[in-house]
Specification:
The complex is a heterodimer of chains A (about 200) and B (about 210). Chain A starts with a helix and ends with a strand. In chain A, a hairpin with a 3-residue loop joins β2 and β3. By secondary structure, chain A is α+β, with helices and mostly antiparallel strands. Chain B has about 210 residues and is of the alpha+beta class. Chain B is elongated, with a radius of gyration of 24 Å. The mean pLDDT of chain B is about 90. Classes of the chains: A alpha+beta (about 200), B alpha+beta (about 210). The interface between A and B is medium-sized, with 20 and 20 residues.
């Protein structure tokens, strides 16, 4: 074999390696950017709405009716003081087909941080099981740093553990920097009212 | 030698092998959550007795349940009656009460603590029995299908049986069950169960 023949063979071997590596890299790029079929299959069906608007979930209709906050929380066990804010989200849930209530109530910040309330959490939720067609007016409280609340959303789901395969309501709370300033200056403590059943009268 | 001749045993054995593969994985064909909800009905009719037998083994004291139940009446009412304290909780706007009367014939030593009840409408929507309501000082019995005061044993443990024997439940009794529903809710069936998936479904004729 001549010297040029040997060089040509080396070049073509190198080219094949390069093509193989390029193909592997391209494959990696594609699989990294394609949605994962497992995640897609179990992902919740997200329903979005604004403050005061109704979100139609699988288990019923939800509307957040009020958001307010203060640095102090008054409970039956005493008064709690926060370096951030206690945020109270008041909502109305009307089950459509089965007696029930929403067992997952969370506030989620723009950067992905989230704060939950309810059983097993430091901050409470008060709600009641309503029969289908009868609204329950409920509220929950979370404690969060004041500088994370602008643009925060409230996230609701029926199941306390996860919302896989189920609908999840994502409500834009419409919190503005002015709201935060007002709430930080609030002297009246936040309370958690008893839930009520039936149309607001 | 043709291909078929050479491979005939292989081809013939493919069929039982496939059948075996399907049978061996057949347990995967069962929906594992199906049994968590009432899905296996014992049907009945308003005013007619239904007999229901089941072996209960959810705790360490298993027992056999053998009861005969009659739904004698289903009616709209103003409010619950016969509660320990007179009912004062105002009915929420847009809601109303249904009263379901049960006649039960069951051995006094049978625990009825797992009893759950539901009203179902023509579209399949259901209202479950609840005994507490927000803002209400009154409560309904926590055990809806046993008489108040003499509920019988809570389980089949010797201690619970001995305790219940002091004030035995009558062998046959009538008990009203109250449901808070939407004002326009029209029940078509009364469901009662102890452990899923088996339940009693009593049809209520229209009109």
């Amino acid at each position: 074999m001549s010297a040029t023949g040997l060089t040509r063979q080396r070049v073509s071997t190198g080219a094949i390696w390069l093509i193989a590596i390029a193909a592997l890299a391209a494959g990696r790029l594609v699989t990294d950017h394609l949605p994962n079929p497992d995640t897609r299959a179990t992902a919740p069906f997200v329903v979005t709405a604004g403050l005061g608007q109704s979100a139609s979930m699988r288990s019923g209709d939800l509307a957040v009716t009020e958001v307010t906050a203060a640095p102090t929380l008054s409970t039956l066990n005493g008064t709690l003081q926060s370096p951030g804010l206690f945020v109270r989200v008041t909502y109305r849930f009307t089950p459509n087909n089965e007696s029930g209530q929403l067992l997952s109530t969370t506030v989620s910040a723009a950067n992905g941080w989230s704060w939950s309330s309810g059983i097993g959490e430091r901050v409470p939720r008060r709600c009641a099981t309503a029969p289908p067609g009868v609204p329950a007016e409920c509220a929950f409280i979370v404690e969060a740093p004041a500088d994370r609340l602008v643009g925060a959303h409230a996230v609701f789901a029926a199941n306390p553990d996860n919302a896989d395969y189920d609908s999840q309501a994502d409500i834009d709370l419409g919190i503005s920097p002015e709201d935060i300033a007002t709430w930080r200056a609030a002297t009246k403590a936040i309370t958690l009212p008893e839930p009520t059943l039936g149309d607001a009268s | 030698m043709t291909w078929w001749r050479r491979n005939r045993w292989g081809v013939i054995l493919v069929l039982p092998a496939l059948a075996l593969a399907v049978i061996a994985s057949a347990y995967r064909l069962q929906l594992f959550w199906w049994d968590y909800a009432p899905h296996q009905a014992t049907p009945g009719l308003l005013g007619q007795p239904v007999t229901f037998r089941e072996h209960e083994d959810s705790d360490r004291y298993p027992y056999d349940l053998d009861l005969t139940m009659t739904v004698t009446q289903v009616a709209r009412v103003e409010r619950p009656e016969g509660t320990i304290r007179p009912w004062t909780w105002p009915t929420p706007s847009g809601a109303g009460w249904w009263r379901v009367d049960l006649h039960m014939v069951v051995d006094p030593t049978t625990p009825l603590a797992g009893c759950q009840l539901r009203l179902v409408d023509a579209g399949g929507a259901w209202t479950s029995y609840e005994n507490t309501f927000p803002g209400a000082q009154n409560t309904l019995p926590s055990l809806p299908c046993a008489p108040q005061g003499t509920p019988g044993p809570w389980s089949a443990s010797p201690a619970d049986l001995a305790e219940a024997a002091k004030e035995p439940r009558p062998a046959s009794y009538d008990v009203p069950v109250y449901f808070l529903t939407a004002a326009d809710f029209q029940p078509r069936e009364v469901w009662l169960w102890f452990s899923t998936p088996r339940y009693i479904a009593v049809s209520i004729p229209t009109g």
